[in-house]
């Protein structure tokens, strides 16, 4: 899944995983879990993420390489937030080739910038289980706590306006070139992500079928 910060990739990844029974691998979620657990990776990556910068390619590629060794991905998987640079995309091609697997589709989420800023600006995240809510479009039932695990909901540090602006710039510079990269590979599927969650999901489903 490709697309700017806050466009709704994670929301759709969780739905696809649940409804299509396919493991979803989110590098953002993996890194946030490492930050919470204060592992060596988390301590190193935390500051980089807070400022809205990308974690170095070799770290992320290593993370994905290890994850793809796990047995649950043998029949296919969904990647959310990876690859994010041309170097990561090339590494993914190599990893897949070594496993005799092929990239079926790249779902490229698009939406007007104002909408993406609105989505990101209202996001509430559970640091315990990773569930995501929105103050207006998907409010938690109990106000400030997670509907799934009852932990306190917080605003991600990188959802502060200055970090969001920087993430958008980083996205344009480093990640947007992957549209061309995958267009050339013949796997790019553009998807207008501006509707409500279920409408976007229906488009995802149609594209994947
Ligand atoms: P990551 O977690 O991947 O962040 P991101 O790509 O910036 O994406 P977001 O999680 O911000 O947004 P999303 O598109 O998933 O939107 P969501 O579904 O939550 O990465 C974070 C950081 O980790 C990076 O900045 C970097 O430092 C590091 N990192 C991660 N991967 C890396 C990599 N490969 N290489 C290097 N560094 C890496 O939705 C947003 C809000 O909108 C929510 O509140 C949601 O409820 C709401 N919403 C969603 N869909 C809809 C809808 N259809 N209608 C109304 N509201 C909606």
What does this 3D model show about the protein?
The chain has 209 residues and is mainly α. It is built from 9 helices and 7 strands, in the order αβαααβαβαβββααβα. It has helices at residues 9-20, 27-36, 40-50, 57-67, 86-98, 113-121, 161-175, 177-185, 197-208; strands at 24-26, 78-80, 106-110, 123-126, 132-134, 153-154, 188-192. The strands form 3 sheets. A 3-stranded antiparallel β-sheet has the order 5-4-6. A two-stranded parallel sheet has the order 1-2. β4 and β5 (132-134) form a beta hairpin. α1 (9-20) crosses α9, α2 (27-36) packs across α3 (40-50) and α4 runs parallel beside α5 (86-98). The protein is globular, with a radius of gyration of 16 Å. It binds BIS(adenosine)-5'-pentaphosphate.
Task: Explain the layout of strands and helices.
Layout: H1 9-20, E1 24-26, H2 27-36, H3 40-50, H4 57-67, E2 78-80, H5 86-98, E3 106-110, H6 113-121, E4 123-126, E5 132-134, E6 153-154, H7 161-175, H8 177-185, E7 188-192, H9 197-208
Parallel strand pairs: 1-2, 3-7
Antiparallel strand pairs: 4-5, 4-6
The chain binds BIS(adenosine)-5'-pentaphosphate.
BIS(adenosine)-5'-pentaphosphate is lined by residues 3, 5-11, 27-28, 31, 48-49, 52-55, 60, 81-82, 84, 88, 119-120, 122-123, 132-134, 137-138, 158, 167, 196-197, 200.
Number of strands: 7
What percentage of amino acids are in beta strands? 5-15%
Ligands (ions, cofactors included): BIS(adenosine)-5'-pentaphosphate
Distance between the termini: 16 Å
Largest sheet: 3 strands, antiparallel
| Helical residue percent band | 40-55%
**Shape field:** globular
**Which strand order does the major sheet show?**
5-4-6
Q: H/E order of the elements?
A: HEHHHEHEHEEEHHEH
Give the radius of gyration: 16 Å
Structural class: mainly alpha
Mean pLDDT figure: 95
Uncertain segments: none
Number of helices: 9
